[in-house]
Amino acid sequence: MSVIFLLLIVSITVAALFLAAFIWNVKNGQYDDEAAAPLRMLFDDTAPAEKQTKDINNNPPSKSL
Amino acid sequence: MKVTAQPVAQCYHCGEDCTADQITYNNQSFCCQGCKTVYQILSKSDLCQYYQLNNNPGSAQRITVRKDKFSFLTDEKIQQQLISFKDDEQTHVTFYLPQIHCSSCLWLLEHLHKLNADIISSRVDFGKKEIDLVFNHQNTSLRSVAELLTSIGYEPYISLQNLQKAKPVIERSLIYQLGIAGFCFANIMLMSFPEYLGLDDAEKNLQQLFRYANMALALPVLLYCSLPFYTSAWGSLTHRYLNIDAPIALAILMTFGRSAYEVLSNTGSGYFDSMSGIVFFMLAGRALQEKTYRQLSFERDYAAYFPIAVTVLKNNQTIETALPDLKAGDTIIIHHGELIPADGLLTRGEAMIDYSFVTGESLPVVKEMGELLYAGGKQTGGVLELLVMKEVAQSYLTKLWNNTDKQTTQSYSFINAISRYFTWIVFGIAAVAALYWSFYDSSKAWNVVTTILIVACPCALLLSNTFTNGHVLRIFSRNKLYLRNAQVIEELATANHLVFDKTGTLTSSEKQDIAFTGKYLTDEEITCIAALAAQSNHPLSKELVKWLNRKEYFSVSNFNELPGKGIRGIIDQHIIAIGSDEFVTGEKINTHTGSVLYISIDGDTKGYFSIRNHYRPALLAQIKRLQKQYNISVLSGDNEYERKTLQLAIGKKAGLFFGQQPHDKLNYIQLQQKKGDRVVMIGDGLNDAGALKQSNAGIAITAGTNNFTPASDAILEADQLQNLPAFLKLAKANKKIILASFIFSILYNIIGLTFAVQGVLSPLIAAILMPASSISIILFTYAATVLYARLIRLK
User: Fold this and answer.
1) Do B125 and A33 touch (CB under 8 A)?
2) N or C: which end of chain B has fewer CB within 10 A?
3) What is the pLDDT of residue B295?
């Protein structure tokens, strides 16, 4: 019987993780621009070591001026 | 002496024909200096992959951007409005780049750091045509970033709107609610199955666990996912009417209350699965219906057209001034291609004003010194000086825009009308049942009342409504009609009066009808005329070149242009002049209305080309047919010259009104509405803006969704105008499909209820039927809309 308790907890936890991932994605704006993402991944990056900061993937911080 | 006739090559940068002066650089041909310069910049920085991803990815650079155009970006106040974030090192800014159109653009714009190392990151939002830039402001400035973008052919579009409005926050709560409802619904279904399939007595403690887990999972649905229904229901109650969300909110609360009671008192398992399922489906329908078109804006006002700053001349010094700070009495300088931001008197320069933003008329108007120029026109000639007469907000057009407060004749949606009656009937039945059972068996009264309220919940109505609307909106958008929201479908369906603008709507602003009247012209003479006309940037000459369509060009010597009058030059040893009657023949002989280009060769007047707006022929025939069902009016700012031809083309019953000023159009629509008509206005340009706003449904016509359209309820691409009757038909069918699927679902409920009352239906079957009935309604609405759209030949 106790195995069902375990199963229940595991299954809901896994589902909750997917839900959290989904909400995180939406919040990060991954679904905002559906046109650019499929194009962007096709570009060859011939450039040597590109300068990038963490800000590239995150939304710009909210207006603070 | 015949000069070289060159074959036409395509510009390596923008793909346009290299006509007059072809430039060759690095074995590539370019149509103009601008395109070549962009190529030089890119090849220097090793960014030529831009040209390999797509052929001719650039946009034409023939019109050079004024050197100081972005000097206003050094103004601290303007800067603060534009940038979204700034710290000690970095500045974040978002620019709108209307030129973005292909993967090359994306690639180049995301490699900006190769051109300027101080640009830390650049990210393109393709749908919105925006670029998010992060740059180090200690080494570079906002102005130089904007100028860098301009130098590679992506000039940022910065308008007055950037100054006025805070950026809208993207509303994502519906998506979160939908995701959480889906999660809860699926898990509740999973944990309800043991109950339906039957459990051994030995496993009763498990049953308890499942029931409490279901209740826990239903809580987020009740408290978070159902919020839109509560707020909408509460909103309607405070306005003293019942909308469809009121009974639904009641049913959700009722179902949860009863289910919680059953679980806590250990008398049953409740209906958590039905509750969360129905909330999930209803939210899905809402999400479908409220799909927004990201690249479009229905809220644009004049601010989106107007520049953010203008050059003011003070004590012989030019000062860039933010537009709201402009005062009457200031002298402003308008350069070529700039918009006149405020009504003013022309004090210096040759004005050739293109009012196409305002009137839809694509041919520019010549204005003399001392004349009043209205805001909204675009200067196509040289530099002008203007004495501002009225502030921006007080100018004729902007005032018209701000003054229109649409008298919203409280239009209840028919869905809300149905649900109102429906709710009272359900309440009546519940009250009668409660009364009946309180006499016979008062312990059952509570059960019966809750059951009635749960079963009679108009969820099916809301489902069929939102899903049908969603499908219709989708079909419309596939046919390039974009509606602001679902309410517009109903406005289109109930309309009985169609009002059209003439210029730019009935006529095409891209195509002109050109005809030559006069003496016979040899082929060579025509080629010479084309060569001369190609030298000028005047819109009429451009139209003429396009229409003459010559594949080769002679070179022109002694070219000379008198702005607003005409052009003259020597080609193949002939002196050719093109222009107004006065310019070419020396006397005023023109009795013609519309635009006319006189031609003379070696002093011999050959005749004239008349250029008139081209009617969309398919549309006129459609309008004639629509007369059986609708009142038709045409409002035009032009004179009566074309009344006869137009009346003949669209039928006798149509009302034609000429010489209509923007406020006349607005008043006309108001008048019709007072008579009880429901008006659909179809127009383009700022002069229709007031009318578009006032009408029950305003459809703005645009040549491409890249272009700006005035605030309206719908945006339609011009080449789809002939589909208007089909659109109206589909909008009408929308209501019928909703009603049919509603009746369908009521039958479902009645059949299910009778079985349930008799006790024939097993709980398992019931649990499967509940989502199945919702899904079948969804499928029915889909099939019905798609089939009907096919029937009336929409995509």
Assistant:
1) yes
2) N
3) 66
| Tokens describing residue B500 | 């059209």
B145: amino acid identity, one letter: V
CATH superfamily of B480-508+616-731: HAD superfamily/HAD-like (3.40.50.1000)
**Mean predicted confidence (pLDDT) in B620-624:** 85
If you ran DSSP here, which 8-state letter would residue B538 be given?
-
CB within 8 Å: B110 and A19: no
**Under 8 Å between Cβ of B619 and B716:** no
State pLDDT tens for residues A6-45: 888 899 999 999 999 999 998 888 877 777 888 888 777 6
Of B84, B107, B128, the CB nearest to A63: B84
Give the integer Cα–Cα distance in Å for B162 and B61: 25
What is the second-level CATH architecture of the domain B307-403? Distorted Sandwich (2.70)
Separation of alpha carbons B3 and B527, rounded Å: 12
Q: What confidence tens digit (pLDDT) does each residue in B528-541 have? A: 888 888 877 676 77
Query: Domain map of chain B by residue range?
Result: 9-53, 69-158, 168-287+414-424, 307-403, 480-508+616-731
Facing residue for B107 by CB, picked from A8, A34, A43? A43
List C-alpha distances in Å: B600 to B514, B541, B560.
17, 15, 15
Helix (H) or strand (E) holding B309: strand B309-314
Q: Which helix (H) or strand (E) holds B345?
A: strand B344-348
CA-CA distance, B791 to B364, in Å (whole number)?
43
Could you please state the CATH topology (level 3) that the domain comprising B69-158 is classified under.
Alpha-Beta Plaits (3.30.70)
Q: What is the DSSP string of B701-737?
A: EESSTTS---S-SEEEEGGGGGGHHHHHHHHHHHHHH
Intra-chain end-to-end CA distance of chain B, in Å: 57
Return the structure tokens found at B301.
Answer: 């006002």
Q: How far is CA B668 from the centre of its chain?
A: 25
